């Protein structure tokens, strides 16, 4: 079967002006939220235009669903667009004294550039400029007395690659060519003769040729309106709902037998909730005044919520009541001879007589009339008169009564309370207003009942069709199709449909409060509301489809405000269209509500309306962020804008250690835009209630900024772990010294015990350790290097003992605490390293079991450590009792084992069982050659990371050559509390080894030496940095999450700062120190141009117990379950490197490109060579 028809959708498209060359496409699916790439403004603070995209859909002879046509489906597509702006043609109606103005023809006063055509795909055409001639004053001495002419463009049209039409409106240009000052407006809301703007509306047609048919003059319409500044929130009454009511009246739509909760009810309730983000409670919100009902209803308000459904329906605004002389009652008592004026205050009502006393001759007014009409009658015959509105008596109960005479009984029977003529009257409470003794009284016809939506305008209510659907919902007669998986609504449909396009476009436009409106409408002062072109049923030829023979381009917008910005100004007083023109907003990062048009309306800049015309594009958009709608992209900042980014500070659980008291830092951060004045902030309330919270800086300031420039003010906040309470709460207040701005920041923190570990190094000193390890060193040398690296890298506060074993074991050193000194002033760290160098001379047989026994004995002698572990190393098989099996049953310390050599040449099975049963694991080096000379050191560091519950985040290897600089990136998250960056190389003295922070600050050895939260260590074959996070490298700037870099080149470590760096050091940390620590650089090693490197970059993630100043020390991380290969229950304890988290798996610098450039979880290292 062939194509029977082709139609354009949306039938009415909505475009919006913007002064940017960039644009986005308006909504094309119901429930769709607009999220243009880069936001609703470009980088220069200009508003992007909203384009209306039109698509072609084919209908078929066999009644299958319509499908979209593109240039791939047909021979050709031609689009024609005819836009017009006819606002100036209505100047006779705009409160002008025509005797003072020259007559201008409608053709001269219109902007009618003619029809523009595009064809096929990726075509483009600019709507030509058209000259407008504006009316002028006859008096030559008055403003606007010479001819006013201007050439105006209404936009452009394009096609996309599929041949769909995109209509883009004008650039938001509003002006007057007269000698009228822009500070002067005739009437600052609607009537500004002599002005023009570039909004428009007009006809869209298409001609489509297929292989067999040609479809010509396919009609649609486009409206180009002002921007919608709260694009994610629908208007309280949408244009779709308003026109759906018109379509029902015209016979093009049939209301459903039952409303759908999702389609008909939920969107209205959702708008009632969301309007609070763009209008203060005193203006427009509804969820907070439900008289005992929850302050905010949650979807679905369903079949078990009878009270809420009834209360919501009661609150809905319904223009279906008679109001007897301002009493609110539908019934009143008057004296004989009183004249009653029936005054129509809303639309489509009549006054039809139901009953009256015998002999009375009142005829009522049974003809339907609209707002502004009135009729009167003098009542002389005593008795009871009842009347109703035939249009709204059913189901709304729009009835009234007049009692004439003081002695006449107010007996209405069941007139108000039962169902005569259709239903009970909701405003009747049994009382009758007493208006006797008056010669004249009024009855308002069509008074509103209820106040939702609480917006201005005589037509600001749900259309009658929707009110009837809501009444069915109230009566529990509806389709409950809401899903429990939804929050505020369903996801948009997966595909674009013809009906969805029609609905999505109109739901994004305003359909109530036409005074005159936003996109379309008109001022009912000049046309009855049912004769406004957009609402006239006779103007349509199908569902939502305007008849091009009934409506001309420009007709839908000609009675809108000119220029449109004047209505945007005026309608800030009273709630009209908050979704398009917000009232009050919540600026991003602030806790306070602000006037959306602040600094513009009621400013000191002169005429407020002129300000809106000039600066409309600088106002902010309200967008959804998380569970809030906040104002963003606001560029109108005549007064400084100060945004608090840090609304609270939570230090979390900070461990007391590892080097005693720790000072942890955070910062209170403000962003400031101050184009007209300097800004100074000061701390006006210190956290004096908590001595361990300090704010070392009490004032901060920025100088005047450029218009779009943002500067930052930071206040450091420090927390000491050894002062005051262990759990604290404090408050800091900061105020602006030259404004009323004040901010309160809550601070919380707690100190927890830093849990340390005692480690016993049980090391093989049997005779075989004198054999070659395969890398030009003996096994003894390799062990010494690895053990010394382990001890050098241990955290202060940890304990270490040293056991050497051959055919028998001995304790070379009992457990001593790293970070303390032994007699003579030697540090425990150095004393342990000395013992490693002197106490492991190879000789004898192998009794691993005896080594384990003595290692446990050294651990059992101490009790101040939270955990105990052993590290056992052997190069061969045990051959002397006691054996591992003899001691394994008594071991409850977590044990890590390392086999130096091949598994078959070591006691790997027994060690594997021992480690797996105690929560440790076994690592076996395999054969080691010069390419793998750091393998044992790396294994020891891997074990050390397991003891400190850190993670190995990156493990690259490489060769560093003269003249090269290697930059190795690694990622840090805001959960990370510390960093160990360890470099293994035979010659650390001639490697310039630095760190670069995410914002580009460089940390060198001298800088780490000067800061108590940093550490740099230089030793044999190893050098490393240790940092607490966040790190304060630059004054008041704390750095943590982001991409860091290790930087390496051949050169001496920078152990002393230059003069400029000394000045910077004094500024940041408040001291100068010309002395540095660390081993001397060996000058005779400078000629070593090529060094084998393996970088083990350990990033402690979310764990405090191994990290200086870490904030998560109470938390346990089971690294064994971090990767399948790391679970000893699966692998018997054999693992490779600890896996890094996925976000840390970043590629190295491109010079390290290759399939093995990043490793995690690998059993053996792979090398890269930089070129």
Explain the layout of strands and helices:
Elements: E1 3-9, E2 12-16, E3 23-25, E4 49-60, E5 67-69, E6 76-84, E7 115-119, E8 124-126, E9 130-134, E10 148-152, E11 156-159, E12 165-168, E13 174-175, E14 196-197, E15 200-209, E16 214-225, H1 239-250, H2 261-274, H3 306-315, E17 318-324, E18 331-334, E19 338-344, E20 349-355, E21 365-369, E22 374-379, E23 383-388, E24 399-404, E25 433-434, E26 440-449, H4 464-474, H5 498-507, E27 540-542, E28 545-546, H6 564-570, E29 584-585, E30 594-595, H7 608-615, E31 621-625, E32 628-632, E33 641-644, E34 648-655, E35 663-673, E36 679-685, E37 693-694, E38 699-702, E39 711-720, E40 727-736, E41 742-752, E42 757-764, H8 779-793, E43 799-805, E44 809-817, H9 828-838, H10 848-860, E45 867-874, H11 884-888, E46 894-899, H12 908-918, E47 922-924, H13 935-947, E48 951-954, E49 957-961, E50 965-972, E51 976-984, E52 991-996, E53 1002-1003, H14 1005-1010, E54 1014-1019, E55 1022-1028, E56 1031-1034, E57 1037-1039, E58 1042-1050, H15 1059-1069, E59 1090-1101, H16 1128-1131
Parallel strand pairs: 2-16, 3-4, 18-24, 18-25, 19-26, 34-41, 42-43, 42-45, 45-46, 46-47
Antiparallel strand pairs: 1-4, 4-5, 4-12, 6-7, 6-15, 8-11, 9-10, 11-12, 13-14, 15-16, 17-26, 19-22, 20-21, 20-23, 23-24, 27-28, 29-30, 31-32, 33-35, 35-39, 36-38, 36-40, 37-39, 40-41, 43-44, 48-59, 49-59, 50-58, 51-55, 51-59, 52-53, 52-58, 54-55, 56-57
Helix pairs in contact: 3-4, 6-7, 8-9, 8-13
